[in-house]
């Protein structure tokens, strides 16, 4: 398993909030839902995305914008248009005067906006309120906004999502979650594979013969009692050479990286109530529940039990939240 596969196999929306919006100008939305990650794609017309500290970015039909949270952002028909509706953390929609408009602007299943459904702007939005923890390392590396133009997308997923979002068939929530996951994966894969777009160090390190193989071993066999010496022996280089080269390419020492990966896996497993902390500890390379709890508390600021009960862990280290906007395919 390469490090990208480790991520792409894991983002799994769980009851993601998806909505089709229909508007005629002038219109403006202030999004303050504090979602960890949001996707916005245009089906018809265009919109401007405004974020503090960034230049306005225009997205047109077929474009997909991935926005890192939890910072707010604004969607408008024109940069000069003030937002008149705010979306809060509970996904409530209200005017600037506090009037709830969720029901009055409802147009049916997961659709809202202007009374006439053939508005000049039609967009889809989906939010990950709590992204899968296995994606934590990559999501921390994302720019504040990542835009995939329609010319770079080459995917039928947007059309499929547009059709499915208005259905209420059996298992529809799962269908929508998986389509949203695939759309996100498509954008992330393009971002990582395109030169010059700021892919994280640990992803680029995969192409190195020794470090790339070391990363794969850590991802495939996290429960092994790895040391720098045993890892170096497995990839056929000296301990000193691996330690130096790994740190240069990945940005942190091998065992530090392994700790982060183990705790990321543990975080995901903790979402399954059938798995005990003791069994999770063994699966991710810790001698027992106390060892795992100590590492988890030290790195995340909460114990495994607190995390399982929903207590918020420490924020990920700042990675891509520097206001950058990356447009793919340029």
What's the end-to-end separation, in Å? 30 Å
Identify the quaternary structure here: single chain
Low-confidence spans: pLDDT under 50, at least 5 residues?
317-321
Strand residue content? 15-25%
* Sheet with most strands: 8 strands, mixed
H-E string: HEEEEEEEEEEEEHEHHHHHHHHHHHE
Q: Structural class of the secondary structure composition?
A: alpha+beta
Q: Helix fraction?
A: 25-40%
- Rough shape? globular
Strand order of the largest sheet: 10-11-1-12-3-6-13-14
Number of E-state strands: 14
Radius of gyration over C-alpha positions, nearest whole angstrom: 22 Å
The average pLDDT score comes to: 85
Can you count the helices?
13
Main attributes?
330 residues, alpha+beta, 8-stranded mixed sheet, 36% helix
Summarize the structure.
The protein is 36% helix and 19% strand. An eight-stranded mixed beta sheet has the order 10-11-1-12-3-6-13-14. The longest helix is centred in the middle third of the chain and has 22 residues, at 172-193.
Could you walk me through the main structural features you see in this protein, from its secondary elements to its overall organization?
With 330 residues, the chain is an alpha+beta fold. It contains 13 helices and 14 strands. The protein has an eight-stranded mixed sheet with strand order 10-11-1-12-3-6-13-14. The chain has a six-stranded mixed sheet with strand order 5-4-7-2-8-9, with no helix packed on it. A hairpin with a 6-residue loop joins strand 4 and strand 5. Helix 7 crosses helix 8 and helix 11 crosses helix 12. The protein starts with a helix and ends with a strand.
């Amino acid at each position: 398993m390469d490090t990208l596969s480790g991520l792409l196999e894991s983002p799994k929306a769980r009851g993601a909030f998806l909505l089709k919006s229909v508007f005629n100008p002038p219109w403006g939305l202030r999004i303050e839902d504090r979602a960890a990650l949001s996707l916005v794609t245009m089906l018809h017309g265009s919109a401007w995305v405004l974020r503090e500290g960034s230049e306005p970015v225009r997205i047109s039909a077929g474009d997909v914008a991935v926005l890192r949270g939890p910072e707010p952002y604004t969607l408008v028909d024109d940069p000069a248009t003030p937002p008149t509706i705010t979306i809060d953390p509970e996904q409530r929609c209200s005017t600037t005067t506090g009037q709830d408009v969720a029901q009055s602007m409802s147009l049916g299943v997961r659709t809202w906006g202007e009374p006439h459904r053939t508005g000049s702007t039609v967009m889809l939005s989906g939010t990950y309120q709590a992204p899968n923890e296995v994606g934590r390392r990559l999501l921390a590396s994302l720019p504040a906004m990542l835009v995939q133009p329609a010319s770079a997308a080459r995917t039928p997923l947007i059309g499929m999502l547009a059709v499915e979002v208005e259905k209420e068939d059996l298992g529809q929530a799962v269908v929508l979650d998986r389509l949203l996951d695939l759309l996100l994966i498509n954008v992330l894969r393009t971002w990582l594979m395109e030169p010059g777009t700021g892919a994280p160090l640990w992803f680029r390190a995969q192409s190195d013969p020794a470090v790339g193989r070391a990363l794969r071993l850590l991802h495939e066999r996290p429960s092994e009692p790895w040391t720098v010496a045993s890892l170096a022996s497995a990839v056929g280089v000296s301990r000193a050479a691996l330690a130096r080269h790994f740190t240069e390419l990945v940005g942190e020492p091998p065992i530090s990286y392994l700790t982060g990966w183990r705790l990321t896996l543990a975080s995901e497993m903790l979402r399954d109530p059938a798995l005990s902390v003791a069994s999770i500890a063994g699966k991710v390379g810790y001698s027992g529940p106390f060892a795992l709890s100590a590492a988890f508390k030290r790195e995340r600021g909460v114990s495994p039990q607190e995390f399982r009960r929903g207590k918020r862990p420490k924020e990920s280290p700042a990675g891509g939240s520097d206001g950058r906007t990356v447009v793919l395919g340029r």
